[in-house]
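Working notes for the structural subgroup meeting. M.R. asked for a predicted model of this chain before we commit to crystallization trials. I am recording the input and output together here so anyone reviewing the notebook later can reproduce the run.

Input as submitted:
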Amino acid sequence: MKIRDIIEGKREWRAHVARVKALPQDYQIAYKEIQKYLFKVGPVELTEGTGLLSGIVDLFEEGAASGKGVLEVTGSDVAAFCDDLIKDSKTYADLYQESVGQEVNKAMKKATDKTK
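Returned structure, recorded in token form:
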């Protein structure tokens, strides 16, 4: 990664954070919890810029502009809202499951090759 990419990534992140801070308080609270949830669940695409998070801010900005409360936008089950956002995304848990399966298959093959 080039230094220019790092600097541009920081600029993009700072602009994103500024957008979040401009949201009404209830939206900021919900956004921060959603962000924590997504970072724990770990969709792989979160490491590729602010795409998903920016989409959430876009949605929240629209909701705030139309006078809706944040739970009117997300629904009362915010975790389910998050799960729906990433339902087709590959997560780090998925990658780990795949690697475990590959390691088991490799070990089994090695063990069966020794017995032959």
